[in-house]
Amino acid sequence: RLQAAITAVGGFVPNNILDNTSLEKMVDTSDAWIISRTGIKERRIADADMATSDMAALSVKNLLDNSGVNPEDIELLILATSTPDHVLNPAAALVCEKAGLKNAWGFDLNAACSGFLYALSVGASFIESGKYSKVLVVGADKMSAIVNYEDRNTCVLFGDGAGAVLLGPGTEGAGLQDSFLKSDGHGAQFLSVPAGGSAHPASTATIEEKKHFVQQDGRTVFKNAINGMTAACKEILQRNSLAVADIDWIVPHQANMRIIQAVGEHLSVPIEKIKVNINRYGNTTAATLPLCLWDFHKDFKPGDKILLTAFGAGFTWGSSYLVW
Ligand code: ACO
């Protein structure tokens, strides 16, 4: 059967670095607390005039430059994001416009930190069906637009960025083999931006109550993230008759170094096999997985077996198994 392989990668992060020392001047925190509790040293912050579609388009342009693929050959773009430029209209259309994808159609997909994993599975199905041969899957988020920089519980965690992969028909067994994706709306109460949507439209009161910012019960999210990613990876391993030792690399969502370490321990995977760049970028939500693929793709050899896993608001979570 046709399989969807990742044939090119691209990424973009803003130049502006917000390090822990700068955060010490903004909220009651310390570099030592942030590093020991999260593993994050610095994160990137987009300028006011740079929206999510701008970062996404720059990651696509980087991919096209790296691969020499003609923008007019792209047939579909799926943008995973929780921070579209506007509530109405889809940011994917803006990305197609800004990146010169004249013949592509596109749509947004919102599954928070699991967005890229969901979008990868959806994009792959267009390749597997034989309908398309060039599909872009992008994860991009401008978390600084929805983070309250007076709330130390959340502002130290997040950053801005975008990553993109190109899917095409795989050769010699390469490609996405299987995905296990889950969602559970019971988790919505533990991590959300409560206002600005149809449940609580913007009003003076919602703004005064700071309900347009990310709010979370960090400990509950922490525990569920470890359990969800571990269970999803075990499910994928089991149903593909894989032992942990068969896996060359684990690329996990970058939310907290302690979450990543705990998932590694529960799976008995040595930390050397787990890709980590949270120290440099923080949690960029839908962008963490493609930014990792962009950062580390030179380490992957053809035939390498890779597990991707993510957990995010919703709750949403899952794992995908691919052969590079
Ligand atoms: N600096 C200093 N102290 C802090 C800070 C900070 N930045 N943030 C919290 N604290 C304090 C708390 O107020 C608390 O103090 P208290 O005991 O006096 O109340 C203390 O540190 C310990 O708080 P905990 O919540 O127990 O700290 P924990 O070790 O759980 O770390 C954290 C908190 C980092 C938020 C962790 O729970 C976490 O990473 N959770 C998961 C978050 C996550 O992944 N969210 C995003 C999912 S992504 C998406 O879908 C958008």
From TrEMBL:
Its EC number is 2.3.1.180. CDD domains: KAS_III. The chain crosses the membrane at residues 306-324. Residues 254-258 are annotated as: ACP-binding. It is found in: Cytoplasm. It is an enzyme of class 2 (transferase). The active site is at C113, H253, N283. InterPro entries: ACP_syn_III_C, ACP_syn_III_N, FabH, Thiolase-like. It catalyses: malonyl-[ACP] + acetyl-CoA + H(+) = 3-oxobutanoyl-[ACP] + CO2 + CoA. The keyword Cytoplasm applies. Coiled coil: none annotated. One of its GO terms (biological process) is secondary metabolite biosynthetic process. Residues 107-185 form the Beta-ketoacyl-[acyl-carrier-protein] synthase III N-terminal domain. One of its GO terms (molecular function) is beta-ketoacyl-acyl-carrier-protein synthase III activity. Pathway: Lipid metabolism; fatty acid biosynthesis. GO terms for cellular component: cytoplasm. The last Arg residue of the ACP-binding site is essential for the weak association between ACP/AcpP and FabH. Catalyzes the condensation reaction of fatty acid synthesis by the addition to an acyl acceptor of two carbons from malonyl-ACP. Catalyzes the first condensation reaction which initiates fatty acid synthesis and may therefore play a role in governing the total rate of fatty acid production. Possesses both acetoacetyl-ACP synthase and acetyl transacylase activities. Its substrate specificity determines the biosynthesis of branched-chain and/or straight-chain of fatty acids. This is Beta-ketoacyl-[acyl-carrier-protein] synthase III. It comes from Flavobacterium cerinum. The lineage of its organism: Bacteria, Pseudomonadati, Bacteroidota, Flavobacteriia, Flavobacteriales. The gene is fabH.
